[in-house]
Amino acid sequence: MAGKWVWHELHTPNKQRAVTFYEALFDWTAVDAPMPDGNYTIWQKGGEGIGGLWPTGGPGAENDPPRWLLYIESDDIDRDYARVTELGGKALTHITEIPGAGRMFTAEDPTGAQFVVMFPIPMEAQVTAKPTKTAKPKAKAKPAAKTAPAAKAKPAAKPAVKAKKAPKASPKAKPRKAALKAAKKSVVGLKTATKVARDTAAAKGRTAALKGRSQNNFRR
Fold it and tell me: Is residue 76 scored above 70 in pLDDT?
């Protein structure tokens, strides 16, 4: 409902002291909730969140005084952002979107009191819808096995090489052999003739010597 208080937030530089005080006073429970820009603490009563605690004194909040900051619901955040200035107030921040919570901005009334204008996400929209399961892509059919190409027929065996016929003896070979034989015969004949001639000469010499002896003996 627009215009109602929807959240209460304590800003303090001493978180532990504030937690000890409020837990003892109202039986609240402080539950830390990690945030992208630091730890945020939620006040719970009977397991239900009723407010929050924001530690100050850090970067950008050095001069933030200890205070309770009220969140007031809006049904048109852009309209109310413009109207704050038109009515004499001041927008201290731009409209910020908080994932899972809504859109909001911090403002100041004409007297200097600060508050937060918030357009909350409806509770039914905060329920995280289960992501639709994406159908897994069907496995691609494996390509058919390639058919092995038919083996090429081996070329027919070459006909056996015919044994080469021994080359016919050159007709010149016969005369050469004949010449060798003739030469051998000539040599043998020469040797024989030489021996015969030598023997003949020797015989003649012996004969002549015998004749000479015979003549000498006859003279005597």
Answer: yes
